[in-house]
Amino acid sequence: GDVLSAWIQRGERQEQKPVRGEQKGRNVPPDVTRLRDLRLGDVRQFLAERSLVLRQIADGDDIPGSYWGAPEAGLIGNNLYARRDTPIHSILHTACHWLCMNEERRAAAHTNAGGDDVEEVAVCYLQCLLADELPGYSRRQAFVDMDLWEYSFRLGSAKSWFESDAQDAAAWLVERGIVVYDCSGVICPATGRRPLAARLRA
Predict the structure, then answer these.
(1) Which residue has the higher pLDDT, 12 or 190?
(2) Is the model's pLDDT at 168 over the cut of 60?
(3) Helix axes 139-148, 117-131, angle to 10 degrees
(4) Which residues neighbour 2 within 8 Å (Cβ) at sequence distance 6 or greater?
(5) Residue 55 pLDDT > 80
(6) Under 8 Å between Cβ of 14 and 152
(7) Nearest one of 109, 137, 121, 110 to 7, comparing CA atoms
(8) Which of 7, 55, 73, 121 could make an SS bond with 169 (beta carbons 3.0 to 4.6 A apart)?
(9) If you write DSSP's letter for every residue of the chain in order, what string do you get?
(10) What are the CA-CA distances from residue 77 to residues 61, 74, 90, 127, 137 (Å)?
(11) Half-sphere exposure (CA, 13 Å, Cβ side) for 156?
(12) Average of per-residue pLDDT values in the chain
């Protein structure tokens, strides 16, 4: 969306499109987990289970549908575009944008995912939840990668935000049936490894 979770200050819309991570002209890119670090088949399967298609782009090529530009992931319809150097957190974030859309928005999805500020934080929350379901990745690593990429949260880190300041994000997801509370009162994806898309509002 036009307000990326990387620069969330809840309730305040940023006036200018921010820059983050590699786009700040770093001499050394952040040492985050990238597509090349995981088994490609696992990532394809993870996305396919959620009705998304991974389209791998050749090294050095532009990434179609990338709002932030390469190496960040792109979205056109249910096609998620990525290079080998695309960060996994970016793939998850882009996938979760699509999962949080209704069918009308999905059909028109292209580059800018749209949505309001609460949906944006809900996307961040969902990407942290789903990190544990992607083989070779984890929520703990997602927190590390998000901090390295300079996602900016009010409490200072992705982990602190997720654990202590994300009630609005969780409520948004629960209201739409994207996540549920299990018998222990723990929030988890509504359908486990089955497509979350099936549980979204009609």
Answers:
(1) 190
(2) yes
(3) 130
(4) 17, 112, 114
(5) yes
(6) no
(7) 121
(8) 121
(9) --S-GGG-BTTB--SS----GGGG--SS-----BGGGS-HHHHHHHHHTTT-EEEE--TTS--TT-SS-TTS-EEETTEEEE-TTSBHHHHHHHHHHHHTS-HHHHHH-BS-----HHHHHHHHHHHHHHHTTSTT--HHHHHHHHHHTT---TTSSHHHHHHHS-HHHHHHHHHTTSEEE-TTS-EEETTTTS-GGGGS--
(10) 20, 10, 17, 19, 25
(11) 0
(12) 82
- Let me know: does 76 contact 111? Beta carbons within 8 Å: yes
Residue 101 corresponds to which tokens in the numbers above?
A: 């859309």
Q: Picking from 19-28, 52-61, 63-72, 86-95, which range would have the lowest pLDDT averaged per residue? A: 19-28
pTM exceeds 0.85 for this model:
no
11 Cα distance to chain centroid: 20
The per-residue pLDDT for range 73-99, each reduced to its tens digit, is 999 999 999 999 999 999 999 999 999
Can you say whether residue 153 is alpha, beta or left, with left for phi > 0 and alpha for psi between -120 and 50 degrees?
Answer: beta
Q: Which residues pair with 131 in a beta bridge?
A: none
Mean per-residue pLDDT, 28-43: 93
